[in-house]
Amino acid sequence: MASHGKPRRDRASEYENQIKEIRAQLTDQVKCLDTQVDFRQQLLQDMSEFLRRKAEINLEYSRSLEKLSDRFSSKIRNSKDHHIFRKEQNLLSPVNCWYTLLNHTRQESRDHGTLSDVYTSHLIPRLAHIGEDLSRLSKKSKEVGLQQQEDLLKLVSELQGAMKTYQLYHSDCMYAEHKLKEAEKQDEKRSGKLGEHTASSPVADRGQRRSSLKKSERLVEKRLKKYLENSQKCTKARNEYLINLNTVNNNIENYYIHDINDLIDCCDLGFHLSMSKTMRVYLQAEEKVQMSRQQSLQAVEGAVDNFNSQTDKNKLFEMYSETFSRPTKFEYQPHEGDEVSKVRSEPLLHQELVSRIQHIKSRLESEHLETEEVKKTLKATLQSLLDLIGVDEFDLSEVFQSSQSTESLKSTGSDTSTKTSTAKRRANQQDTENFYVSKFQKYLLGRSTICKLQAKYDLLKEAIEKAAVMDSNISGQV
Amino acid sequence: MASHGKPRRDRASEYENQIKEIRAQLTDQVKCLDTQVDFRQQLLQDMSEFLRRKAEINLEYSRSLEKLSDRFSSKIRNSKDHHIFRKEQNLLSPVNCWYTLLNHTRQESRDHGTLSDVYTSHLIPRLAHIGEDLSRLSKKSKEVGLQQQEDLLKLVSELQGAMKTYQLYHSDCMYAEHKLKEAEKQDEKRSGKLGEHTASSPVADRGQRRSSLKKSERLVEKRLKKYLENSQKCTKARNEYLINLNTVNNNIENYYIHDINDLIDCCDLGFHLSMSKTMRVYLQAEEKVQMSRQQSLQAVEGAVDNFNSQTDKNKLFEMYSETFSRPTKFEYQPHEGDEVSKVRSEPLLHQELVSRIQHIKSRLESEHLETEEVKKTLKATLQSLLDLIGVDEFDLSEVFQSSQSTESLKSTGSDTSTKTSTAKRRANQQDTENFYVSKFQKYLLGRSTICKLQAKYDLLKEAIEKAAVMDSNISGQV
């Protein structure tokens, strides 16, 4: 109604502009959906290419790890020690740990191989299928969409036609009305003149006038008929135009609100589902690798938990039992016919033995004291040494958290301050170790000395006591 | 005592054999411990070499993954779509997922780089330190051990000396006893003769005999003194021998029971602790990688969970709002001066309109029924199609469990039966899809038709009702 009163040219061009805009929009819509499809195809292609390359990288990684673990496993198989250890079925704890480390690496190799296989055999074909499905479905839904657009444009063009017909018939109607009014005016004028002249004009004139009046009435009648005819035609044309207008507007609304939605849904059909299924296969595979890695790491951890120097030492003693078994004691070998087999105190020797045992006793006591001291120092030194060895000098979380890029890693953890502190700690460790070993040697020597003194003391004591018993027997006899 | 009565040669050689055996055992012990140290050094060297190579492999893996993710990330950065999506800050769900996948890969690259760095900067130096510590400590404890062995052998050799002294003195003692007995026998014989001859022999003879007796008694006295002297010497030597014997046996026991244990402990000092600490760094690093991977996989999983076609469609509408916004309605454009703007029923047209609306009504009803049917079929077909797309056709657990080696993988999961079933499923999917799309098109057409008919129906109904009202007004007036 805004265009009410505008020149005809403008009204028609207003529709035309609107139609031009809609046409452009429809074309843009097709283009936009095509772009989306192209974009998705590109995405699928990129992901495929990405996974293809990632599969290669993983296969390469898998092979390198396999070669690595094989190299060291075969080295174990070929070593002579291997037979000893395998036979024993009792691996020393660090060797056992080394085996689990190699197994872990072999498992890593297998898992990355499987990963590579999952990419190649499962994911890439799925992406290809998604691409095929997408291209087929998008083509089909585009066809359906174009059909709908065509229908819409057909309606719009029908609207244009209906409007034109209406305009034409309305013009005709207006013209007929104009003509009718003209005739009516003429007729009115004539019938007025007739009434004016009826009394004064001659009969012949009157007859002439009456026939002219009749003619005019007939014209009015004829024009009225024409007008009514045109008016009806105009009403019909207007009705059609209005119906077409409503149809077009309703169908445009239907197209924009429902059809576009449904067409995009049809084009999308299954895409998100397939994509998410594909990605879930990817995630599942990664999850499996995570689990497998966790398991083989637990095996390594178990081996580390089992590190035990005492058990290893005992295994060593078992393995080399001949080398470490105590030799038979040296037996007393009495000289021909000598029946004495004990240390004997004789009256003339007695005093010497007594003074000797006293000397030994005092040496034994002081040696015990000293060695006990050394032992205490040794124990304390051992603890400090183990503390020095066991000290934690860096935190891996930092190394992992601060690693924002591969480049920045190169220096972390091996920086100068860490190096200096390590060097300091190790120097300290060596000093403590030197002190420990010197104390250790002193301790062993002390223990040997005690052992020797004790051996003498025991025999002398026995002899002296025996002599005392014999003495008292003798004095008792006396 | 078993050797009691054996010839002297055998007794001495028994000790010698024992000593020979001990010497051999002691040498073997040193050799055995040396072998253990060599074995450990070899283990450390193998582990170092293993980690060095594993670091290389991981660095290579890290670089390949970095290059891979960079390649696709830069492709995104350079694409024109990127700007659109980045600006929007509203990524479409598959694109978002693709970004998280690239991020995950970048994180993997970083983690493996860090792993490589941890091997190189932390583990390998630690192993080198363990090797140095081991070599230093084993050398020192070997020296201490050799000193103890030397002491032991010195005791043994002292035992041999003491035994020889004892044997010598016992021989002397026996000889002195023998000589004493000989003199006593002679003396007895002489003193017997003296008693025999005392009454009958001449005085001069008697004096001669008495002096001979005195001489014999002096000899006995002299030999007794000698014997007592030797006997004491023998007792002292036997005492020394017995004391030495006890000392040797005690010290051998001490060496075999305590010293060897302590020497091995000293040589082992810190080895197990350092090894376990090193391995724990390895485990910690792997743990961190596990955690990091878990995190970035969770991000990918989140992106997969967010796959949503409806949200994506709405984002698309937002992004291309101009393309998808409803155009302005076509307005009614009345022809010059025409004041009628509604469909009009006029008496002459009335019947035509009535029969027209009846026809439309019946068409509308049947079209509604038909379209409703099509809609139902469409819905059911959509569900079967989604079921076909969403079907799970393989189990990854099998792929991972059955993978005992990288070689055996190649065929799993991509075997013929799976391929056949996939091909069948996809053929089935395409058939269903074709059916779906044909129904979809039918549905859209039906809806458009309903839309058109409804638009006509609504206007006609309005016009007819209005005409009826006017008619009744007129008849009311009449």
UniProtKB/TrEMBL annotation, chains A, B:
Keywords: Coiled coil
Entries under InterPro entries matching the protein: AH/BAR_dom_sf, F_BAR_dom, FCH_dom, SLIT-ROBO_RhoGAP
Compositional bias of kind Basic and acidic residues: 184-196
SMART domains (UniProt xref): FCH
Region called Disordered, residue ranges: 184-215, 405-428
Every F-BAR domain range: 20-312
Biased composition regions of type Low complexity, renumbered to the chain: 408-421
Superkingdom assignment: Eukaryota
Protein's UniProt name: SLIT-ROBO Rho GTPase-activating protein 3 isoform X5
Biological source species: Xenopus laevis (African clawed frog)
